[in-house]
Design brief:
Blueprint (H helix, E strand, L loop, with lengths): L3 H21 L21 E3 L6 E3 L26 E4 L7 E4 L29 H81 L1 H4 L3 H29 L7 H44 L2 H6 L6 H20 L3 H16 L6 H34 L15 E5 L3 E6 L3 E6 L5 E10 L11 E6 L10 E8 L4 E9 L2 E8 L29
Parallel strand pairs: 10-12
Antiparallel strand pairs: 1-2, 3-4, 5-6, 6-7, 7-8, 8-9, 9-10, 11-12
The structure holds alpha-D-mannopyranose (MAN).
Amino acid sequence: MVALSQLSLTVPCILSATWLAQAATPAVKGVDPAKYELYASLAGHQWECLDGSKKIPYSSVNDDYCDCADGSDEPGTSACSHGHYYCENKGHIPAYIKSSQVNDGVCDDACCDGSDEYNGFVQCPDRCKEVAAEYKKTQDMLNKIRTAGVSAKQKLIDEAQAEVAAWQNEKSKLEDTLVIKRAELLRRESELEQLSQQRKSHKTSQKRCPSNKANPLTDALERHVRSLQEEIDVLVSILRDMKRDHNHNFHDMAVKAAIAGYDEFLPGYEDLKKEIDTDLKEYEEQQDNADDDFEETDEEEAEEEEIPQTSEEKALKEGKLQSLLNKAVSALPLMWKSQLDQLLSRVGMKQNEEKDAPALETAEKVRDTMKREIDDAERRLNEINDELAKDYGPQREWLKLKDTCVEKNEGEYTYSVCIHGAAHQKSNKDSMRTHLGTFEAFVGPKGTDDYYREQSFTHGTRCWNGPERSVRAFIDCGAETEIIEVTEPEKCEYHFRMRSPAVCSMEPIQEPHKPQARKPAQRYMHEEL
Ligand code: MAN
């Protein structure tokens, strides 16, 4: 606790310190009180220009003569053309005006306290109370717009998020489907290849080895054992890739089942493969020996004579191959087996050539359908990937506005624009429609919130004797997407002042976003007018 006697001693000390500080930094006309200390006098009644370029007598500050290059010595007069005058605007918001506006005989809105007109030529009443009330009204209105805009924007963001989630889901399903369909296509293509090979070899074997003509089952079995092995190898490599690359976050039952089948199948497959290879080699050696015997006979004779082969030998051969085929098939997971039923039943059907033709045709049709399905899936996947890669704003707030079209009647013309689409000008006299450009990019200052508030539309219809028409859209926060005003500051270069919830922010103050016209905004007066 501070004793009362101590307090009475302390208070005068604080006051005297304050008085000293004020004495050191006197009020200077046209300067923000927070910066008075910059205008304190130096030793020998000197003062240094704020840019440090020069020292001048203290009496030269605000003497209505410009001494400093930066104009800092004349904050309260109009002597320096590039200086600034501070209006305190009590009851409202302080502001700076150009030095040239000081004592120019005009009561400036920005300087509502009238302090800038002090030479007596005009009397500027203090209007700050009135201006503050007006300002508050505007702020309240902007806040209302902002609140409505922010909630509309949140809706746009939520809807975009749902759309993106749906795309990602579809994308993951398409990717999984494509893996399966591509594998299926490979299988179908190799099946087709077999069928056409069988057709060819059927004819050859009928010529070459009449003994087989009565029973081509052995040949067919052998080919199927080989092709089955090739197919298994292809499927194993596809499934290995799929297991490695598939999107683990989006579980598709078909993909899960395929991977489970792969896991179930793989352990026993390597051993079985070796076993089948050995059996096949053995069988081929026997077959080669038989062929050698056949080649040794005179060809002409062979055409007429059958290779002697007992029914026991034939049955043995077929039995061996059938068991090889069964072995290969038995190794397959259940889900693959069903697809092979068709293939196996066809082995039995290949008793004569005529039956190959419809099978070949059907297989071709199935293959073509599959190709079309793959093309469609790839096209859709590309569309989704393109959409996901597009810039729709930091929270994809522009996504759901895409293709929203708005228009504005400006008397002579009605202007329209579709978000992320095209802008047009339609004559109100003859309804002739002119293309002003197609959305090209967001062009606001990069890395700022304003980046999405400026958009360019380019490559419109070429202007007579001039450039291609183009549009710059300047967008402020609003509860709705709309065009407020259209100007043509340069021939065939149009400025659309717009509003949209997509650019609303939670920040309390929304300054209107001003078009940066190269020339003062005015309507270009073209020759025809
Ligand atoms: C038309 C309109 C105008 C444009 C002139 C240029 O009249 O598109 O906006 O300035 O052509 O010749």
